[in-house]
């Protein structure tokens, strides 16, 4: 039914299920301090603690974009963590460290999804034919499956803002900061993506 994909409902369902909304400021401060110390000292213990701190959020982003049954999920999570470590010296410690790391994870996950799109389609076909392997409770929500089809169709910059808004629950202002663009540009990208969403919803009605 069309109501199952209503944009307001989609935002709530996806955001709640992914469980990766904006972080607790206290936790974010702790991660920022860890990132600062890890970057400055290169201490392996501090680096590991920082990675352990951001790993749940990174995994949540990857699961939301790729789906919990994606064959390369864990590989892409590890790829994200490596990319974050490499990018950390460039972080200016302006804004949320979790938003910064989530954005890196989001881009890597979208790229990974695009690389593995054909394989995922084959895997889904096998599941639908009745292999006996049921999907996760997250995947059972129509909103998440539908969002992933949009990610396949949208340019990366638009897919980013959709995931940040609907999965991570970021405000438009937070999206602008995380992506390094003006608020008006973030609004424009979100508006274009939502228009595509509305068109798809019209086709699915």
Please tag this protein with its features.
single chain; 205 residues; mainly alpha; 10 helices; disordered N terminus
What's the number of helices? Answer: 10
Alpha-beta content class: mainly alpha
**β content, as a range?**
under 5%
Number of domains: 1
Helix-strand pattern: HHHHHHHHHH
Largest sheet: none
Tertiary shape: globular
- The Rg value, from CA coordinates, equals 17 Å
Q: What is the helix fraction of residues, given as a range?
A: over 70%
Distance between the termini: 6 Å
Oligomer: single chain
pLDDT averaged residue by residue: 75
Model regions low in confidence, pLDDT < 50 over at least 5 residues:
1-25, 130-142
Characterization of this structure:
- The chain has 205 residues and is mainly α.
- The protein has one domain.
- 74% of the residues lie in helices and 0% in strands.
- It is built from 10 helices and no strands.
């Amino acid at each position: 039914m069309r109501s199952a994909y209503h944009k307001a409902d989609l935002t709530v369902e996806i955001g709640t299920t992914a469980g990766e909304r904006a972080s607790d400021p206290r936790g974010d401060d702790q991660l920022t301090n860890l990132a600062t110390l890890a970057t400055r000292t290169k201490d392996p213990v501090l680096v590991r603690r920082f990675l352990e701190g951001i790993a749940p959020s990174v995994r949540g982003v990857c699961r939301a974009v790729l789906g919990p049954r994606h064959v390369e999920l864990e590989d892409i999570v590890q790829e994200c963590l490596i990319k974050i470590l490499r990018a950390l010296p460039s972080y200016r410690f302006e804004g949320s460290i979790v938003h910064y790391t989530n954005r890196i994870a989001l881009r890597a996950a979208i790229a990974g999804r695009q690389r593995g799109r054909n394989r995922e389609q084959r895997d889904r076909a096998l599941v639908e034919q009745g292999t006996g392997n049921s999907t996760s409770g997250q995947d059972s929500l129509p909103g998440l499956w539908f969002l992933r089809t949009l990610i396949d169709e949208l340019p990366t910059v638009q897919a980013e803002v959709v995931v940040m808004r609907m999965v991570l629950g970021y405000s438009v202002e937070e999206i602008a900061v995380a992506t390094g663009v003006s608020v008006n540009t973030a609004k424009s990208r979100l508006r274009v993506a939502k228009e595509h969403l509305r068109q798809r919803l019209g086709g699915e009605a």
